[in-house]
Amino acid sequence: MSFELLTIHCLSDNYAFLAHDPDTKATLLVDAPEPDPILTKLREKKWDLTHVLITHHHWDHVDGLSKLLEYYSPQIIGSSSDINRLPPLHLSVAENEKIKIGNKVGKVFEVSGHTIGHIAVYFEESNLLFTGDSLMALGCGRLFEGTAGQMWQSLQKLSNLPDETVVCSGHEYTETNANFALTIDPDNQDLIRRCKEIKKLRSDGVPTVPSNLGEERNTNPFLRPWSKNIRVNLDMIDATDDEVFAKIRALKDAY
């Protein structure tokens, strides 16, 4: 059986995720923005918290952990290359290493850009990809520590996964991302359709996360610096993918 997945709204616009293995009763938490909404879901489901994956060191992904540890004793997993900025880890992992949650095995990707040492984890059997603030719904994280080249390289790794992959990212930024995407890719019919769906979801208070990787490839401008339409709109028809990606990121920062 695949993971049972819960998306948990935290703080003003963060998401945490609980992935429960029904075969072994193991439960993974991905990021810990604040404790109370996570504790509420664990108690409602009567799940034991057995593992915590921290995607990166930012406070809005780790600050809820200490209170959770008053009630549970999970294995805490994070990046070996950022170990000095993360909470104390039981397991540090690097690119292409595996983590096991119950009977489910996840592959680690290093996805530096938003931060150095940021990781994402892909569970092939469940079609789940936990991306934190790297690949996001119709966007990607700001480049607080890494370069545009690093982020583009990171996103290419994730973009190569199967279309049906469910992308579990860390924030509800999708409507703003959609509005920006239309400014540089206004004739993309898949994007136009998706933007209408997003506006309806948000007007109804429904999360837009998780998203679908196949749809991200068709609509997310940060995965599409090769697009002729985007290049024409940016007057960068002969630029490299790295250069176009950097321009898109700079425009979004100023949007």
How would you describe this protein?
Helices cover 33% and strands 24% of the residues. The protein has helices at residues 35-45, 59-62, 65-68, 148-159, 174-184, 189-203, 213-219, 228-233, 241-253, and strands at residues 4-10, 14-20, 27-30, 51-53, 75-79, 91-93, 98-101, 104-110, 119-123, 128-132, 135-136, 139-140, 166-169, 211-212. Strands 1-2-3-4-5-6 form a 6-stranded mixed beta sheet, with helices on one face. β1 (4-10) and β2 form a beta hairpin. The radius of gyration is 18 Å and the shape is globular.
What characteristic shape results from the CA principal axes? globular
Low-confidence stretches: none
Topology as a string of helices (H) and strands (E): EEEHEHHEEEEEEEEHEHHEHHH
Major sheet size, sense and barrel closure? 6 strands, mixed
Question: How many strand segments?
Answer: 14
Helix content: 25-40%
Mean pLDDT across all amino acids: 97
